[in-house]
Structures are given as structure tokens and as C-alpha cells.
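Quick one from the shared queue. A colleague (R.T.) flagged DNA (cytosine-5-)-methyltransferase as missing a structural entry in our internal table.

Convert sequence to C-alpha cells.
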Amino acid sequence: MVECFAHCLQRWAVDDDEVACESFRMNHPETRVRNETTDDFLELLKEWQKLCKQYVKESEVNDHADAITEFSNGGPDDSAVPPEELEVWKLVDICFGDPSNVRKRCLYFKVRWKGYGPNDDTWEPIEGLGNCNDAIKDFVIEGHKRKILPLPGAVDVVCGGPPCQGISGYNRNREFDEPFKCEKNKQIIVFMDIMQFLRPKYVYMENVLDILKFADATLAKYALSRLIGMHYQAKLGIMAAGCYGLPQFRMRVFLLGCHPEEKLPPFPLPTHGAIVKNNGPLAFERNLVGWSDSTSVQLEKPIVLEDILSDLPKVGNAEDRDEMPYVKGPQTEFQRYIRTFSSEVQGPKSHAAKAKSKKSKPKLYDHRPLALGHDNYLRVLQIPKKKGANFRDLPGVIVGPDNVAKLDPTKERVLLPSGRPLVLDCVLTYEDGRCLRPFGRLWWDEVVGTVLTCPNICMQALIHPAQDRLLTVRESARLQGFPDSYRFRGTVKDRYRQIGNAVAVPVGRALGYALAMANLNKTGNDPLMELPPKFAFSHIEGTP
């Protein structure tokens, strides 16, 4: 959630993924990040509005401070408190739900007890704080000034991506007939409920392409109808990340909406040629964001894997360092840019900006792969270092005239030292033996289809072109356009998941530029706009 276009402040963020919230806090210290479900967040916003109406004077409604820090009214006084009694000193946070998972769901405050420190704070339901009206009033007035939570009409832009697992083609148990029976699909309803409550100037919703393919596009039609029902202007576009300077095709659906008094932003046109990996649904072909066939335009050449990988240090399957030095300078325009544009994404208060101000020697973060088990590592060692190599190159595999891979019946099945087969049954049966991705080795002049949330070598082509390992967390982050300074928290699997769930950074950047131009009334009425020359790898004017 963003306010104030002059500085584009990322004021609030919410996610129920704890480690994703930790990563966001680390990279965006100016943002108040809440780790909770959007359902609870919406209920909290409603309760917060009631509290503000009760305790905040009308004259103070627009009197906001910019800092977002923990409240502090000085230290607790030194007056003695009997050890058997607890006295509320102040309230330091607020939430809706059941933070301790032991009580009923309602509004809770985090209490700082008199004579105790932050480690002893506890969540208490509002109904148990009947004698603490002054503390509640102080918290609400101070919280309103510090904008700890958004109020209706106070948010310029809301961006979100309701969970897509319920409609993703990778989910084999989808509810085709009644998609809203799936709890994961109901998050689109909650997202639109939040829009209806906050009434932002602009709305951006991202989702997988399957939202248009699944159940006659029921969920996409629902989202559009909700915006139109709120009298918002709305439109839907399909954008491919590879068209904006990435070696990842990754088609995604974007729903744009804006308040009737604002100008609906255009979709930004592609800047790069792309190596097509898949096509969108024919029924929505007109929604594909691209240049018309009749337009003569000189696009930048496609970005391929060599453009993003060639400068990174060599690491092994068991690499476990979270940071390391670069061993050589950038070799391509992409690499020069990805090492230096952190302030556009992370802001002036981030760890990257502080390191830059201290002129610290750059470090490379998260350049470590998900370690393969011993058997899979032995299998990878036998995948040739050549373009197109995959499990079909392993001993004992033959391919019939129908392009189906199978074991050679004339030869004895090859076993590993563990006694398990070299060629797994699952790769022979995946997509009826016709798939080329299992144990696939990527190549320098190629692109990937989509960076997923969980690397699975039995289903995806993930092996480095020249090294016997999976692509690292950092290499995956580069595939999504994250600057090298952007760090990820959690286990290695957690980090892959966060990267796979993200919107490709260059796509978000292009959409943001088009939004800013519309807000400044610098766009016409065309639904599409051309980005400035060399936009993909240039720094936007006015960025620190």
C-alpha cells in the first residue's frame, strides 16, 4: 500500500508468510509490515476506524507524522509496584484475531507492563482492558499521527496478488465447478473487500495466467465486476516479463482499477524482444500487452541466461555461505544495472543504501543453491554439459518415434551405489514420458519459462549450464529482476518460495512508471504507452 506520489512511500504491507515479512522489513525499513492474514487485517482496519472516530478529534484527522516507530512516552517511572500485581504502562501494538491461539478472535492490544521490558509484553483482548481507557486513547491518538494503519481515503495505491494455488495449473485438485469453494480462491473476495473499504485512488492486482483459463475465467470476471460495482474504471492486461528485460518469459495477468475521479493508467509496452515459451488463452488474445503487427518498432534484443549469470562466482552443490565477495566485475548491461539500482526498489533507508553511503565493498548475497541429495547429485553429474541435455541423456534411456522416453529393454537397469535406479520412474511417466524438463540443463542462450516457488529437479529444468548444481537463490532472484542488494530471510527453500511468489521487478517498475505518468497527467487516452528509450536498465530521474 502506497501513499504520496511525490516520494512514493511504501507505507503498509501485509502477508501471512512470516519469513516473507522478515525479508520485506529488512529491505524496506520505512514500511510497516504486518504478519497476518488479509481477513484479520481487514477486520483490524474496521476496528481501527471505529477507534479513531472515538478518540481522534476532527481537527487532528489530517495531522499526520511520517515516522513509523514503536510508541514511546519515555521510560516507566520508578514507583514501586507490588510483585503480585501487574499494571499497564502503555500499549505498543494492535491486531485482530487470536495472536496466542488460545482465546476467541477479537481486537487485541500488546501491553507493556509497568516495571517490565519488551520481552515481557503480552497480547490482551480489548475487553480485558476496561480500566485502561487512557492508555487506549493515548495509543490511538499517537497511532493515528504516525499512520500505523491506513484509513479509508488515505491510501493512493493498493497492490496485491491474492494466492493463486487454488487455480494454478500445478494444483491437480482444483475446484472447476465451484471455484469459490476453495479457501485459497476466496482471497480474491477479501482483496476486493479491502478495496471497497479503503477506496484507494488506484488498484493493481496480479495473478497467474490460469485465472483466465480456469472455470471460464470466473475469478477474473468477479474481480472486474467488483471494481465496476464500486464505479471504478478497470481493465485487464497480460504481460510477459521477458518483454521487459528478463531471461524469463513468465506471463501474468494484471488487473488495473482507478477511482472515477482519477486517470486510468495505461499499460507499458514491451521494451525487449522475447523468446516465447508459451501462449496466453486465445479468448483473451486482445488483452496481451504488446505492439500491434502493423507497428514498426526496434526492440532491444532478448535477454538470455548468459546476460545474467556470467559474472557470478562458481559455487558447488553444498555451498552454504549467505554472503561472499564478487570475483569479477559486471560483464553485461544487465549485470551493471542489477548491481547498482537498489535505491529504486529498497529506498533510501535500506541496508543497501546505508552500505552505499559508507562506500562499503559490495557483497554478493544468497548465492547458494538448494543442496541436492547424494543420489540426485550423482544423477546431475551424468547430465552432459550441452544445450538441451536432460534425463534422456542418461544411460539406459531410449526415445521412441512417438517422442516418448522409456528404459531400453535390451539393457540392464543402471543402479546407483545406494541401490536406487539412476533413471527415476517419475521422470519417465511425467507428462506421459514426453516432457524434456526433468533433470534439464539450462543453456547460455536460453530463457526459462517461469521461476516457481519450489525447485523440483524431477519436473523442471534447473541445472546450471556449466556447474553441476541447481540455480542458486541469487540466480533465481536475478531471473526475477531483484537487485543484488536485495536479501532474503529464512531457509533456502523459504527464499526460493519468496522469489517465485513475487512480481517480476522490471514489470512492476514499468507499471509504476506508467502510473506516475498518469498521475502527473502526462499520458493521453491511449490504453498503452511507450516507455522511454533504454528504460529497462536506466535509473529513473529523482531516485536517490
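The longest strand covers residues 88-97.
Confidence is low (pLDDT under 50) at residues 62-74, 76-81.
Added to the table.
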